[in-house]
Write a structure and sequence with these properties.
binds fe (ii) ion; alpha/beta; 292 residues; single chain; 6-stranded mixed β-sheet; 9 helices; 7-stranded mixed β-sheet; 13 strands; Purple Acid Phosphatase, chain A, domain 2
Length: 292
């Protein structure tokens, strides 16, 4: 089964991947970081995971120096991609990224620069491709029903972090039949149990996770007899090369340094617990199980 339909409950265009019987790699937030996306494809090859079993949860374009090249590589690789808020804004020729940053926040002001840089480098063909991408993906693995979204089920640019109250996740699950939701947008990887269900964010490829390391993150989902195993993975790549490209392009020095230091230039979007975790290397080595 491999179908596309509009899900009237959320006005979202959902594409169904059917039943998946082999491991799937989940990643997101390539953020115009061509070097990180290339490294991800190499890592997938080393894990014997082909492109048709890779899912990108949106925002292929953002902070870094190679917006068109990164989007072209994602498109050419035939990875399953959904729209993030950036794809949605660029395909509709909107004036800003609709990231959900407050207008006067540091993130809001800095986003104007990288969005204008990307907007000037994306041609019509890529905009049309981004406009055709589905908003959600659905699939079934080992009896577990999954929905892939960008921010949340109800809102493409909603920030949800591990520390948010259970009720915030329950409200999102209430709008779906999913046992597992795979989301992006927030940039910090986590796996959160919500009753018998699981919310999973694989983190971002294009920027580190504010944990004082240059590592970036992806995940592998594997079908097992009792359900789906979720495993977070770190990705090492040539961040110095990506940083040099940003500096050469005249992009924000603060974000260029983030690629090296692993620390975000602004914590505006983070809840207090995630702010307090700043600079503490993430330890996500224990796999989680979503029971069917
Ligand atoms: Fe986003």
């Amino acid at each position: 089964m491999d179908t596309c339909s509009t899900d009237s409950r959320y006005g979202a265009r959902a594409h169904d991947l059917g039943r998946l019987n082999d491991p799937v790699l989940v990643c997101g937030g390539a953020y115009s970081n061509l070097d990180a996306l290339r490294a991800l494809l190499e890592a997938a090859g080393a894990l014997s995971i082909p492109a048709e079993r890779i899912i990108h949860t949106g925002d292929v374009i953002a902070y870094c120096a190679s917006p068109a090249e990164t989007a072209e590589l994602l498109r050419a690789s035939r990875i399953h991609a959904i729209q993030g808020n950036v794809e949605q804004s660029l395909s509709a020729s909107e004036p800003d990224c609709h990231c959900g940053f407050a207008a006067e926040s540091v993130c809001g002001k800095l986003s104007a620069q990288w969005f204008a840089y990307a907007d000037a480098r994306i041609g019509d063909e890529l905009r049309q491709w981004m406009g055709r991408l589905p908003h959600h993906l659905t699939f079934e693995m080992a009896g577990v029903y999954a929905r892939v979204v960008h921010g949340s089920v109800s809102q493409i640019n909603r920030f949800l972090f591990a520390s948010h109250p259970e009720s915030a996740f329950e409200a999102e699950f209430a709008a779906t039949d999913a046992d597992m939701i795979l989301a992006g947008h927030s940039g910090i990887p986590f796996t959160r149990r919500v009753g018998a269900r699981v919310w999973h964010n694989s983190g971002a490829l294009g920027l580190p996770a504010n944990d004082a390391t240059p590592r970036v993150w992806f995940s592998v989902l594997s079908p097992e007899e009792e359900g789906v195993h979720i495993e977070h993975h770190v990705l090492d790549y040539d961040y110095e090369k990506a940083r040099e490209k940003m500096l050469k392009a005249g992009l924000c020095r603060d974000y260029a340094e983030t690629l090296r230091t692993g620390l975000w230039p602004s914590l505006d979007v983070l809840p207090r617990p995630e702010r307090k975790q700043t600079g503490a290397p993430l330890d996500l080595r224990s796999p989680a199980l979503v029971r069917s």
